tRNA(Ile)-lysidine synthase (Mariniflexile fucanivorans), 874 residues
Amino acid sequence: MIGNFETHINAKLSFLKNSKLLLAISGGIDSVVLTYLCYKLGFNIALAHCNFNLRGKESDADEDFVLQLAEDLDLEVFVESFDTTTFAQDSKLSIQMAARILRYDWFETLAKQLKYDYILTAHHADDNLETFLINFTRGTGLDGLTGIPEINGKLVRPLLPFSREFIEFYAKENHLKWRDDSSNASTKYMRNKLRHDVIPVLKEINPSLLQSFQTTLNNLQGSCDIIDDRIEALFKEGIIKLTPTGFKLSIFEIKKFHNIKAYLYRFLNAYGFTEWDDVTNLLNAQPGKQVFSKHWRLVKDRDYLLLSELVDDERSIITISETDKQVETPLGILFFDEADAILETSKTIVYVDKTTLNFPLTLRTWEEGDVFFPLGMDGKKKKVSKYLKDEKQSLLEKEQTWVLCSGKAIIWIVGMRADNRFKVSENTKHILRIELK
Amino acid sequence: MIGNFETHINAKLSFLKNSKLLLAISGGIDSVVLTYLCYKLGFNIALAHCNFNLRGKESDADEDFVLQLAEDLDLEVFVESFDTTTFAQDSKLSIQMAARILRYDWFETLAKQLKYDYILTAHHADDNLETFLINFTRGTGLDGLTGIPEINGKLVRPLLPFSREFIEFYAKENHLKWRDDSSNASTKYMRNKLRHDVIPVLKEINPSLLQSFQTTLNNLQGSCDIIDDRIEALFKEGIIKLTPTGFKLSIFEIKKFHNIKAYLYRFLNAYGFTEWDDVTNLLNAQPGKQVFSKHWRLVKDRDYLLLSELVDDERSIITISETDKQVETPLGILFFDEADAILETSKTIVYVDKTTLNFPLTLRTWEEGDVFFPLGMDGKKKKVSKYLKDEKQSLLEKEQTWVLCSGKAIIWIVGMRADNRFKVSENTKHILRIELK
């Protein structure tokens, strides 16, 4: 059984053998077993431990334990201390969610900076089952029932096929030591309820519950994949189209579907919408009518439902330094130093004479009173408001129009029209290509 | 609360107000509450009770109880007695499945014969939740998690949005009497476990569990609907095509999918296939290679996977009398007495001179040695084997070719070619149209 375990992990992780691995360790039994296994199999691992400072001395003892384990096994170890409570309060998140964000942010930063190829976590089959039951109990959709993936980008979870029972067995067989898992009290309460009161009864009904659960997850993941194919087809048919700040749905086409709500749920659930009747009613509402989620807005335009991000005041002016190669929020804009030939300017790619720019540039939504000199208009000045009207922009599209500026001068109405003043001329020495992602 | 209940049922059932309703009653609390409600609301109901004879005197007491209730409320009542144990043994089914088949068959026969528009059953929200958890515990796919529908053809389940707790409350408020529900012991064990040990814990975690569950079911049903749209599109694109005895899947197209197994599961799960690796491997197997389920066979043909029903020897010769208008198994063939004009003969519709036929006709699969006189071949005789070869029929298609005969003479190679000897001539008085459904 133990041999089987190690063989499985070895086979599973064979694609990681020549990789640098960062192993997330709490000091609990699961992550200690994973550490020991990877160590025994000779993988190239370093440990990463978060001290969330949520349980005073206990948290520090966890940290000490991990440091000692790293020393015993002669492994590199990283430890980071977080003021989780403050972060949770500041960002209005639950302690659990705050810890999750802090943890994964730090792992990813570490992995990036120190060139780790993969991040390993010690989730196992019972974790997966408990998550399924928590989501189910709270009410969910298909996405909430498909479980944690074994491999998801850089994240790899080698213990996912194995039960808690088996991991405990392995730990005891190998005389491993561990600390009690630190986890958020409220989830702990729920997880404990499920672990001790619910799952044993289900296992009584079906002793091979975990195996059946694996089958169920596979089947449900298959259903998700078929749905994804359907959605991809809708993109191909142009029924849903990406926009610079979200997407738009063809009202005419959506109305043809048998189960309209199902599609709206599929498209919009991830954006925090919950009032599905309101969302559905939007299809027949007056143009301009809107429904909001916490961070997103859905507007009924004439022919489309338009999804766009609500823009905070704080980030409505973005500063771009000369070394920035990429701006991510809310628009993805890329900057390339382009030495030689330029291709034709399009709505999404412009070329400018870099020496004419005053860095830092700014990116902001347009304002009443903005003027620019549209490229190809013989240097004539035009009001941005007039330009947008001529372009037949909808109310929402207008609101979401961004301008890239050098000082007060507009370089580019992003995704639409460049300004004449910054264009590349015969004398241009340094061409900058700016591209909407 | 009670008022709300009755209002809801009244509104839900408004489309049934002028209908004849058959109410399935066990004598248990749920069906008694439904009976009382329908009675109180003045619906046009009759009761139907199955005595499965599984619990001796208790079963008879249930029957007596239902008869008494019908008398008290002055309702028509039907009672049928079943030898469930024998039927289960003969048909190799579990007692539970046997009872289910007997019950629904009888309800449907009754409804058809006596022209009842709908059949009402008393399933409620907890039944639905228990079924979900049973399926989940055993291992399932999306279909096993979408619950019982409130309306499904003739079947209507008005209590589905309501909890057991609420139904009990209503029964007590109205001083109703009922008998303990009779149900199969093995499910009863599972259901009781879930009812008493699992669901209360889930309700502790989320007091509005049943409401959340309703949301989950809606969402999952939505996912099913999106998948159905995808499958419909595959039919439109010809990637899957119906055949007279099943369907066929284009191997070339299926291989393009990201998650091939998910599609094979979706197409074939309902036909009892379980060995998904074998099924998937068929895509790359030698032509002629097969995978079997209990009643179905999947064959790798050159370009297609072909699904077909396994034909029992017993039904391989079907006798058709002059009055039969329809033959259902394994092919659907319709017979129409056609007095006047005939349309063009096609592969699926033939017209014959009825007076040339010797009834009863027979329908059987073709045999080595069969000959016929293909229509339009100037009365030349041809071996059926040669004809099928010329038509480039695959091995499987050949096996599934049926012939309709008058005595020993072939009238029609079903779905392919008519015989010259039975054709309609100028002298034909009575034309029979024969059509493949």
